[in-house]
């Protein structure tokens, strides 16, 4: 489970003790070890099957697939006729030489397991089916833009099977591991991981997330207090229907100690009890303990049902029939004639946006407040911003951002002087109301010193290449955090100019099958529209088309030219 190798040491022998004195804040509550499940190694991340079996990860056990340095194999235990837990056994069919973590069960015969990846297994969450006493591999879960930059992972399927909360280091993370959410779509795929935001996540590690049955309370572990006492268990409540709306986390005082506490969940045989792990009685490795479960009432209790009911509405985006029709149109159209035709939504479909739901990446931590735009001429900068059509100087707002998407609006010369030399600020956004904004690298900005930067008015016929939106090769998955930043800027532009309608035109190079290229170009344009729509832009304001490789802007015989041809253009419509 842990992301670094550590010396294998035996756990202390005090497991038989009831831990009243070991846990701070305990008031008349018993902390009891599950002795038969605990070993000299690292027990973490318990998950109960619908049949009442317990599956969990054991790290650094010499019987693991990768031996004593293996971060975690899947182990299991069940109860005998008298209700006592049996000695755990390793589940060979669910274990690899990397880190293996059970995420949950979709039913009694289907399990989801995270694998950190290796020669024969890609990184991600995978589905297995039970046949008798063995587990057979089925397929990987298709989670858009899934990438874990850490060797640590924890995650759990929600009680309704529609949501996975997970801890990993990915796009838009605030520090180490953050907690993200992915939501199941109608076609069985999952949305791109959405960072839960700065109320839950911090510069430190947030791990082992667990959702209450109504999806309104999140329990998790974090070492954000920085008290050198390891991780503590917290809970946070959703303050609205959105997955970024969370109240300030509160410590679960009864179970936290000077060790590290993690993996806090309801205890399968008795939901009034909590099962969690602690290193209090060991030398750095987790032991399973039982205590009373701290249940909390949801915030805004009268509206809870209405808020929860909104979650499936996100899953209904888009109707699979419409998405299939778009792809069919992309393939069927002649290569050299017209772009892929967009399928007009029916009246029923226009009630809700027909888009693939994409998760918005959290980009601004609480320490940096993004100011409201103030569009003024800035004599203290040597770059003059002008209207591209009239060449008249215009007022503008300048904003700097770093590679993680953290951004800061600049309104005074003093702010500029303080931030301009800081190497973390790598991008500069120039925007003015009624004009198409431009995102520049620091190098491009410096090349403009003493010159003019022309912004195109946001009126019919104006177009711009969305140059900083990158896709993984051959797919419609966004490639990096900067792409998300550009999309967020585009969302802001559309909200600030509510009368504007745009067309997104997808293009590829000419390599490969022309019809597949048209399909890919349409999917990429659709992916961007999906991101805009899920972040509040009306569906009818964004039209899409896919041209494949039929409209090159550069020589396809060079790699540089092919890269320029692989693009998405935004055109302002009437």
Strand order of the largest sheet: 1-20-19-18
Structural class, by secondary structure, is alpha+beta
The strand count comes to 30
Task: Name the helicity range.
Answer: 10-25%
Low confidence ranges: 1-28, 301-338, 340-371
The rounded Rg comes to: 26 Å
End-to-end separation: 55 Å
Shape: elongated
Biggest sheet architecture: 4 strands, antiparallel
pLDDT averaged residue by residue: 80
Strand content: 25-35%
Counted by DSSP, the helix tally is 8
Set down the secondary structure blueprint.
Layout (H helix, E strand, L loop, with lengths): L31 E2 L8 E7 L5 E6 L13 E5 L11 E2 L9 E8 L2 E6 L8 E8 L2 E7 L13 E4 L5 E6 L9 E6 L10 E2 L10 E6 L5 E6 L9 E6 L12 E2 L9 E7 L2 E9 L8 E6 L11 H12 L4 H13 L14 H4 L33 E4 L9 E5 L5 E4 L2 H8 L6 E5 L6 E4 H6 L4 E4 L7 E3 L15 H16 L4 E7 L6 H21 L7 E5 L12 H7 L1 E7 L1
Parallel strand pairs: 21-26, 28-29
Antiparallel strand pairs: 1-20, 2-3, 3-4, 4-5, 6-7, 7-8, 8-9, 10-11, 11-12, 12-13, 14-15, 15-16, 16-17, 18-19, 19-20, 22-23, 22-24, 24-25, 27-30, 28-30
Helix pairs in contact: 2-7
């Amino acid at each position: 489970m842990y992301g670094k190798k550590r010396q294998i040491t035996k756990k202390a022998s005090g497991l038989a003790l009831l831990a009243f004195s070991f846990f701070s804040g305990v008031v008349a509550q018993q902390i009891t070890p599950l002795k038969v499940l605990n070993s000299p190694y690292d027990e973490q991340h318990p998950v109960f099957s619908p049949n009442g079996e317990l599956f969990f990860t054991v790290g650094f056990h010499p019987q693991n697939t990768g031996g004593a340095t293996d971060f975690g194999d899947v182990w299991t235990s069940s109860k005998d006729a008298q209700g006592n837990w049996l000695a755990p056994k390793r589940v060979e069919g669910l274990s690899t030489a990397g880190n293996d973590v059970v995420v949950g069960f979709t039913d009694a015969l289907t399990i989801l397991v995270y694998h950190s990846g290796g020669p024969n297994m890609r990184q991600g969450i995978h589905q297995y089916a039970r046949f008798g006493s063995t587990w057979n591999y089925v397929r990987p879960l298709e989670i858009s833009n899934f990438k874990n930059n850490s060797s640590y992972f924890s995650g759990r399927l929600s009680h309704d099977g529609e949501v996975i909360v997970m801890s990993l280091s990915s796009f838009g993370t605030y520090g180490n591991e953050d907690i993200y959410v992915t939501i199941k779509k109608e076609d069985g795929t999952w949305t791109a991981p959405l960072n839960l935001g700065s109320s839950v996540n911090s510069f430190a590690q947030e791990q082992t997330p667990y959702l209450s049955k109504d999806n309104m309370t999140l329990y998790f572990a974090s070492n954000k207090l920085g008290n050198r006492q390891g991780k503590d268990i917290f809970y946070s409540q959703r303050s609205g229907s959105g997955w970024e709306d969370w109240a300030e986390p509160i410590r679960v005082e009864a179970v936290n100690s000077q060790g590290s506490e993690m993996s806090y969940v309801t205890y399968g045989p008795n939901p009034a009890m909590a099962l969690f792990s602690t290193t209090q009685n060991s030398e750095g490795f987790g032991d399973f303990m039982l205590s009373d479960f701290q249940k909390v009432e949801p915030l805004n209790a009268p509206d809870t049902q209405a808020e929860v009911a909104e979650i499936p509405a996100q899953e209904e985006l888009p109707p699979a029939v419409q998405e299939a029709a778009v792809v069919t149109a992309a393939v069927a159209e002649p290569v050299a004639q017209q772009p892929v035709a967009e399928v007009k939504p029916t009246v029923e479909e226009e009630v809700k946006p027909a888009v693939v739901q994409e998760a918005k990446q959290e980009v601004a931590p609480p320490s940096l407040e993004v100011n409201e735009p103030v569009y003024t001429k800035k004599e203290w900068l040597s770059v003059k911003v002008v209207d591209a059509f009239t060449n008249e100087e215009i007022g503008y707002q300048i904003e700097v951002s770093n590679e993680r998407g953290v951004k800061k609006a600049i309104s005074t010369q003093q702010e500029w002087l303080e931030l301009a030399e800081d190497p973390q600020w790598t991008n500069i956004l120039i925007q003015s109301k009624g004009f198409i904004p431009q995102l520049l690298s620091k190098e491009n900005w410096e090349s403009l010193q003493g010159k003019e930067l022309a912004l195109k008015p946001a009126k019919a016929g104006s177009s711009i290449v969305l140059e900083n939106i990158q896709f993984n090769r051959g797919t419609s998955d966004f490639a990096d955090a900067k792409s998300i930043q550009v999309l967020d800027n585009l969302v802001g532009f559309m909200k600030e100019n509510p009368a504007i309608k745009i067309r997104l035109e997808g293009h590829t190079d000419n390599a490969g099958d022309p019809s597949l290229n048209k399909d890919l170009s349409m999917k990429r344009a659709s992916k961007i529209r999906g991101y805009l729509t899920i972040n509040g832009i009306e569906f009818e304001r964004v039209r899409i088309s896919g041209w494949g490789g039929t409209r090159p802007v550069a020589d396809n015989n060079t790699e540089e030219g092919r890269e320029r041809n692989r693009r998405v253009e935004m055109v302002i419509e009437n």
